[in-house]
Structures are given as structure tokens and as C-alpha cells.
Amino acid sequence: MTYNFIYFYIAAFGFLTIMFLTLRDIRIYHRTKIISYRKGALRGMIAGALAIIGMGVTIENPQIGLTILLVAVYINRKGTREDVFGDAPVIKRVFGETKTKI
Hints:
This protein is an all-alpha fold.
């Protein structure tokens, strides 16, 4: 029995994590218009594209696929961001709830 499907699930979790954080950055940028969140969302889209390629490669060659995914996670690293949450609870931070700035 091969463990390729386990590696695929690991790669899928990495891809979903990157996309969740990207969608969160998009939501925060849409509500606040802070440029650093726009840059984070654009970087997340590039990382997401690379992660989905890595997820596809993982089925055939897990070592190369997970390496590509690791590079995607590195690309999606956290940059400098402004504090938009203040003292908001954790659940609001997770879902990116912020005050709307017009």
C-alpha cells in the first residue's frame, strides 16, 4: 500500500489553508482599503496557484509535490500589516471581521 493519498491530503490541507488566508485578506481589504492586505491577497493568489500545482504533482511524486507546496506556503508568508482588529475576540480575527472604512 502506498501512502500517496495521505500525502495528497496533506497537500490539500496546505492548499485550503492558503486559500482561507487569501480570502480573509480579500475580505479585510474590501472592508478597510488598506494596501498591505491587497498585497497579501495578491501574494496569496500566486501561492494558491502554486499550491494547486503542487497538490496535483503530489499524487505522482509526493516529494516534489510537497516541496512545491512548501514553496507556496513560503510565498504566502505574513508581511507587515496594520492592526485592524484592535482588541477583537479570536473568532472575529479568524473570519476577518473589521469595521468598514469608506
